[in-house]
Amino acid sequence: MEENKQLLEIASKAAKYAYAPYSDFKVGAALLTDDGLVFTGCNIENASYGLCNCAERTAVFKAVSEAKTNFKKIAVAVEDINKTVYPCGACLQVLAEFMYDGSVIISRNGVPEEIKVKDMLPYNFTLGEKNE
Ligand code: THU
Question: Is residue 43 within 8 Å of 59, Cβ to Cβ?
Answer without folding.
Answer: no
